[in-house]
Design brief:
The protein is mainly α and about 90 residues long. The chain is about 35% helix and about 0% strand.
């Protein structure tokens, strides 16, 4: 080992930072269980309202979830219409 690579015995090692244990304690919730349920229900109602207010992208066609559309596209792939045909089953 070269002399510059050897650790210096006089080098000070910094003391590790001490984290107080109360940092990991959970505080009592100010919201009771019935308020939490009402809060979750309002989140769900907002989400349903947003989803139902979105325009249909597939106008004129039965709206299907996108995973069904992708699955249908994969099922219709044959060797003559896709360069990726040999890799679909792997």
């Amino acid at each position: 080992m070269a002399k510059s690579e050897e650790p210096d015995e006089n080098e000070l090692v910094p003391e590790p930072e001490i984290v107080p244990l109360d940092v990991f304690e959970e505080e009592e919730s100010e919201i009771n269980d019935s308020d939490e349920d009402a809060l979750w229900m309002s989140f769900i109602n907002n989400a349903v309202g947003q989803i139902s207010s979105e325009p249909d992208v597939l106008s004129g066609i039965n709206p299907l979830p996108s995973f069904c559309i992708k699955e249908e596209n994969i099922n219709n792939v044959t060797a003559d219409n896709s360069a990726w045909f040999p890799f679909l089953n792997k």
